[in-house]
Write a structure and sequence with these properties.
245 residues, alpha/beta, seven-stranded mixed sheet, globular, binds zinc ion
Protein backbone atom coordinates (compact mmCIF):
# COMPACT_ATOMS: atom_id res chain seq x y z
CA UNK A 1 0.00 0.00 0.00
CA UNK A 2 1.15 3.46 -0.86
CA UNK A 3 -0.07 6.73 0.69
CA UNK A 4 0.32 10.02 -1.19
CA UNK A 5 -0.27 13.33 0.54
CA UNK A 6 -2.28 15.65 -1.69
CA UNK A 7 -3.05 18.30 0.94
CA UNK A 8 -2.27 18.80 4.60
CA UNK A 9 -3.55 22.23 5.61
CA UNK A 10 -6.64 23.36 7.48
CA UNK A 11 -8.90 25.25 7.61
CA UNK A 12 -7.56 26.97 4.48
CA UNK A 13 -4.51 26.34 2.31
CA UNK A 14 -1.49 28.66 2.26
CA UNK A 15 -0.16 29.80 -1.15
CA UNK A 16 0.60 26.69 -3.17
CA UNK A 17 -0.86 24.35 -0.55
CA UNK A 18 -4.04 22.30 -0.34
CA UNK A 19 -6.58 21.20 2.26
CA UNK A 20 -6.80 17.54 3.37
CA UNK A 21 -6.72 14.88 0.69
CA UNK A 22 -4.88 11.53 0.71
CA UNK A 23 -4.50 9.10 -2.14
CA UNK A 24 -4.15 5.46 -1.15
CA UNK A 25 -3.07 2.96 -3.79
CA UNK A 26 -2.65 -0.79 -3.82
CA UNK A 27 -2.12 -3.00 -6.89
CA UNK A 28 -2.38 0.24 -8.89
CA UNK A 29 -5.96 0.81 -7.65
CA UNK A 30 -6.67 4.19 -6.03
CA UNK A 31 -8.88 5.22 -3.13
CA UNK A 32 -9.21 8.90 -2.24
CA UNK A 33 -9.53 9.88 1.43
CA UNK A 34 -11.04 13.36 1.83
CA UNK A 35 -11.32 15.95 -0.87
CA UNK A 36 -10.56 19.46 0.38
CA UNK A 37 -9.62 22.57 -1.55
CA UNK A 38 -6.92 21.86 -4.16
CA UNK A 39 -7.15 18.08 -4.03
CA UNK A 40 -8.70 17.50 -7.47
CA UNK A 41 -5.85 19.37 -9.13
CA UNK A 42 -3.16 17.62 -7.10
CA UNK A 43 -4.67 14.15 -7.58
CA UNK A 44 -4.18 14.34 -11.33
CA UNK A 45 -0.41 14.46 -10.80
CA UNK A 46 -0.69 10.83 -9.69
CA UNK A 47 -3.70 9.19 -11.36
CA UNK A 48 -5.90 9.99 -14.31
CA UNK A 49 -9.44 10.99 -13.48
CA UNK A 50 -10.94 7.90 -15.07
CA UNK A 51 -9.04 5.66 -12.63
CA UNK A 52 -10.93 7.06 -9.68
CA UNK A 53 -13.82 4.90 -8.49
CA UNK A 54 -14.09 5.49 -4.75
CA UNK A 55 -13.90 8.46 -2.40
CA UNK A 56 -14.19 8.16 1.38
CA UNK A 57 -14.95 11.37 3.28
CA UNK A 58 -14.18 11.56 7.00
CA UNK A 59 -16.79 14.31 7.39
CA UNK A 60 -18.47 17.17 5.63
CA UNK A 61 -16.64 20.21 6.94
CA UNK A 62 -15.59 22.24 3.90
CA UNK A 63 -11.84 21.83 4.37
CA UNK A 64 -12.32 18.06 3.91
CA UNK A 65 -15.00 18.05 1.23
CA UNK A 66 -15.13 21.32 -0.74
CA UNK A 67 -13.48 19.91 -3.88
CA UNK A 68 -16.34 17.42 -4.23
CA UNK A 69 -18.15 20.34 -5.88
CA UNK A 70 -15.38 20.36 -8.52
CA UNK A 71 -14.79 16.63 -8.80
CA UNK A 72 -18.38 16.29 -10.05
CA UNK A 73 -17.57 18.35 -13.15
CA UNK A 74 -14.38 16.44 -13.84
CA UNK A 75 -16.19 13.12 -13.70
CA UNK A 76 -19.27 14.28 -15.56
CA UNK A 77 -17.72 16.43 -18.27
CA UNK A 78 -14.11 15.42 -18.64
CA UNK A 79 -14.12 11.69 -18.12
CA UNK A 80 -17.49 10.42 -19.08
CA UNK A 81 -18.79 12.96 -21.53
CA UNK A 82 -21.09 11.27 -23.98
CA UNK A 83 -20.80 7.86 -22.38
CA UNK A 84 -23.05 5.92 -20.08
CA UNK A 85 -21.23 6.70 -16.84
CA UNK A 86 -20.22 4.41 -14.05
CA UNK A 87 -20.55 6.76 -11.11
CA UNK A 88 -17.72 7.51 -8.73
CA UNK A 89 -18.96 6.19 -5.39
CA UNK A 90 -18.59 8.45 -2.37
CA UNK A 91 -18.86 7.13 1.18
CA UNK A 92 -19.60 9.74 3.83
CA UNK A 93 -21.40 10.48 7.08
CA UNK A 94 -24.78 12.02 6.24
CA UNK A 95 -24.57 15.12 8.44
CA UNK A 96 -25.33 17.89 7.76
CA UNK A 97 -28.09 16.43 5.62
CA UNK A 98 -28.02 19.40 3.26
CA UNK A 99 -24.31 18.91 2.52
CA UNK A 100 -24.73 15.17 2.09
CA UNK A 101 -27.57 15.63 -0.38
CA UNK A 102 -25.30 17.80 -2.54
CA UNK A 103 -22.68 15.06 -2.98
CA UNK A 104 -24.58 13.01 -5.56
CA UNK A 105 -24.51 14.49 -9.04
CA UNK A 106 -26.35 13.33 -12.14
CA UNK A 107 -24.97 9.92 -13.12
CA UNK A 108 -21.42 10.99 -12.24
CA UNK A 109 -21.31 10.80 -8.44
CA UNK A 110 -23.28 8.41 -6.21
CA UNK A 111 -23.15 9.18 -2.50
CA UNK A 112 -23.63 6.49 0.14
CA UNK A 113 -24.16 7.12 3.85
CA UNK A 114 -21.81 5.16 6.08
CA UNK A 115 -21.81 4.63 9.83
CA UNK A 116 -19.25 3.08 12.15
CA UNK A 117 -21.13 -0.19 11.80
CA UNK A 118 -20.19 -0.43 8.14
CA UNK A 119 -17.32 -2.30 6.61
CA UNK A 120 -16.62 -1.78 2.92
CA UNK A 121 -14.80 -4.11 0.59
CA UNK A 122 -13.48 -1.97 -2.25
CA UNK A 123 -11.14 -3.86 -4.55
CA UNK A 124 -8.00 -4.63 -2.51
CA UNK A 125 -9.16 -2.41 0.39
CA UNK A 126 -11.19 -3.19 3.47
CA UNK A 127 -12.44 0.08 4.94
CA UNK A 128 -13.74 0.51 8.48
CA UNK A 129 -14.93 3.49 10.49
CA UNK A 130 -15.00 4.83 14.04
CA UNK A 131 -16.86 7.94 15.18
CA UNK A 132 -14.53 10.61 16.48
CA UNK A 133 -14.86 13.41 19.01
CA UNK A 134 -15.57 16.40 16.75
CA UNK A 135 -18.35 19.02 16.63
CA UNK A 136 -19.69 17.49 13.39
CA UNK A 137 -20.20 13.74 12.90
CA UNK A 138 -16.81 12.52 11.69
CA UNK A 139 -15.21 9.13 11.11
CA UNK A 140 -11.70 7.95 11.60
CA UNK A 141 -10.97 5.57 8.75
CA UNK A 142 -8.99 2.33 8.79
CA UNK A 143 -7.87 1.03 5.41
CA UNK A 144 -6.50 -2.49 5.28
CA UNK A 145 -5.03 -4.62 2.53
CA UNK A 146 -3.82 -8.18 2.95
CA UNK A 147 -0.44 -6.78 4.02
CA UNK A 148 -0.85 -3.34 5.54
CA UNK A 149 -3.01 -1.09 7.69
CA UNK A 150 -3.41 2.67 7.49
CA UNK A 151 -5.42 4.56 10.09
CA UNK A 152 -6.49 8.13 9.40
CA UNK A 153 -7.90 10.00 12.36
CA UNK A 154 -10.10 12.44 10.43
CA UNK A 155 -10.77 15.38 12.73
CA UNK A 156 -10.85 14.47 16.39
CA UNK A 157 -9.92 15.18 19.95
CA UNK A 158 -7.71 12.59 21.65
CA UNK A 159 -9.73 9.54 22.70
CA UNK A 160 -8.99 6.10 24.10
CA UNK A 161 -11.46 4.59 21.62
CA UNK A 162 -9.35 5.91 18.80
CA UNK A 163 -6.21 4.43 20.35
CA UNK A 164 -7.94 1.04 20.15
CA UNK A 165 -9.02 1.69 16.57
CA UNK A 166 -5.45 2.58 15.57
CA UNK A 167 -3.76 -0.30 17.36
CA UNK A 168 -0.75 -1.80 15.54
CA UNK A 169 -1.33 0.22 12.36
CA UNK A 170 1.62 0.51 10.00
CA UNK A 171 0.87 4.22 9.59
CA UNK A 172 -1.22 6.51 11.76
CA UNK A 173 -2.07 9.66 9.80
CA UNK A 174 -3.09 12.00 12.59
CA UNK A 175 -4.63 15.43 12.61
CA UNK A 176 -2.42 17.88 14.45
CA UNK A 177 -4.38 21.11 14.58
CA UNK A 178 -3.76 22.68 17.94
CA UNK A 179 -0.87 24.50 19.57
CA UNK A 180 -0.14 23.02 23.00
CA UNK A 181 -1.66 26.02 24.79
CA UNK A 182 -5.02 25.16 23.20
CA UNK A 183 -5.04 21.55 24.44
CA UNK A 184 -8.58 20.46 25.22
CA UNK A 185 -10.12 22.78 22.62
CA UNK A 186 -13.07 20.83 21.30
CA UNK A 187 -12.58 18.37 18.51
CA UNK A 188 -8.88 18.53 17.65
CA UNK A 189 -5.49 17.27 18.82
CA UNK A 190 -2.17 18.80 19.80
CA UNK A 191 1.17 17.36 18.72
CA UNK A 192 1.76 15.85 22.15
CA UNK A 193 -1.62 14.11 21.98
CA UNK A 194 -0.78 12.74 18.52
CA UNK A 195 2.48 11.39 19.93
CA UNK A 196 0.68 9.86 22.88
CA UNK A 197 -1.89 8.21 20.62
CA UNK A 198 0.82 6.69 18.41
CA UNK A 199 2.73 5.45 21.44
CA UNK A 200 -0.30 3.89 23.14
CA UNK A 201 -1.56 2.32 19.91
CA UNK A 202 1.87 0.85 19.15
CA UNK A 203 1.88 2.08 15.55
CA UNK A 204 4.96 1.74 13.42
CA UNK A 205 4.91 5.21 11.91
CA UNK A 206 3.16 8.48 12.81
CA UNK A 207 2.54 11.08 10.12
CA UNK A 208 1.23 14.44 11.31
CA UNK A 209 -1.16 16.40 9.11
CA UNK A 210 -4.03 18.95 9.16
CA UNK A 211 -1.75 21.87 9.96
CA UNK A 212 -2.77 25.44 10.57
CA UNK A 213 -1.18 27.27 7.59
CA UNK A 214 1.14 29.29 9.82
CA UNK A 215 2.04 26.49 12.22
CA UNK A 216 5.69 25.79 13.01
CA UNK A 217 5.58 22.24 11.67
CA UNK A 218 9.09 21.26 12.77
CA UNK A 219 8.22 22.31 16.30
CA UNK A 220 5.09 20.14 16.19
CA UNK A 221 7.09 17.14 14.98
CA UNK A 222 9.60 17.64 17.79
CA UNK A 223 6.82 17.80 20.39
CA UNK A 224 5.15 14.66 19.03
CA UNK A 225 8.51 12.83 19.12
CA UNK A 226 8.98 13.74 22.77
CA UNK A 227 5.75 11.89 23.53
CA UNK A 228 6.38 8.88 21.37
CA UNK A 229 9.46 6.72 21.60
CA UNK A 230 8.21 3.62 19.78
CA UNK A 231 7.24 5.04 16.36
CA UNK A 232 8.98 7.08 13.72
CA UNK A 233 7.41 10.54 13.62
CA UNK A 234 7.31 12.89 10.63
CA UNK A 235 5.20 15.64 9.12
CA UNK A 236 3.19 14.50 6.10
CA UNK A 237 4.72 16.25 3.08
CA UNK A 238 2.51 17.39 0.23
CA UNK A 239 3.30 15.60 -3.03
CA UNK A 240 5.22 12.85 -1.27
CA UNK A 241 4.32 9.16 -1.40
CA UNK A 242 4.92 6.83 1.53
CA UNK A 243 5.15 3.10 1.01
CA UNK A 244 3.73 1.20 3.99
CA UNK A 245 6.12 -1.38 5.40
ZN1 LIG B 1 -13.71 19.24 10.87
Amino acid sequence: MQLTILGRYSPFPPPGGACPGYLVRSEGIPLLLDCGSGVVSRMQNFISMDQLRWVVLSHLHGDHSSDMAILRYAVDLDVRHGEDPTPVEVFSPDEPEEEFSRLSYKKAIAAHRVTEEDRLELGPFTVEFAETDHPLLCHAVRVRTSEHTLVYTGDTAYSCDLVDFARQADVLLAECSLPEEHAGYRGHMTASECGRMAEEAGVRRLLLTHFWPRADVEDLVQTARENCTGSSVHAAEEGRSYRLR
